[in-house]
Write a structure and sequence with these properties.
This is Peptidoglycan-binding protein. By secondary structure, this protein is α+β, with helices and mostly antiparallel strands. The chain is built from four helices and six strands.
Length: 165
């Protein structure tokens, strides 16, 4: 005896199986994706994703100045992690601050996190009084002074706590 399935009856069954977790469409599941790992191999808190962009914030009154912080997405949270090997404008945002606010040599503001950027970050972390681990995260962000720009040119360094973000 063969069974016939009517399309209208299959769809609710598939939906029920998907919701129960019995069937997967093979799509990436954020809950099972590799989570960022903090120092010592401990999982980072769930809200610490990997930085993959930078976010520009206005700062101060007229004339308006801007500050760029590493972020998740161009309009996302700045509560993120970075480490050696990262590449992109989020790395360049950090390199600008390391060069302009901490006098560090990052090997250039090129958006490529190599050994010089790691050394520069470690030196700046030491100067800022935070754990010297060579990894950028919320603790480092909060302790740093950030490069502020006026009309695209470096203007000054402002502590994160004064940015109003």
């Amino acid at each position: 005896m063969s069974r016939r399935f009517v399309v209208g009856s299959v769809i609710p069954m598939v939906v029920a199986l998907l919701m129960a977790g019995v069937v997967s469409l093979g799509l990436a599941n954020p809950a099972s994706a590799a989570a960022p790992v903090a120092v010592g191999g401990n999982p980072a808190p769930a809200d610490h994703g990997w930085c993959n962009n930078h976010r520009t914030f206005p700062w101060g009154g007229a004339p308006v100045r801007t500050v760029r912080l590493p972020s998740i997405g161009s309009n996302g949270t700045t509560h993120c992690l970075m480490q050696a090997g990262a590449q992109g404008n989020h790395v360049a945002a950090l390199q600008r601050t390391l060069v302009n606010c901490y006098g560090q040599n990052t090997g250039g503001i090129d958006g490529i996190w190599g050994s010089a950027t790691t050394t520069a970050l470690r030196n700046a972390q030491r100067s800022a009084g935070v754990s010297v681990d060579g990894i950028y995260g919320p603790q480092t962000r909060n302790a740093f002074r950030w490069a502020v720009y006026l009309d695209g040119s470096f203007w000054d360094c402002v502590p994160y706590s004064q940015l109003g973000i």
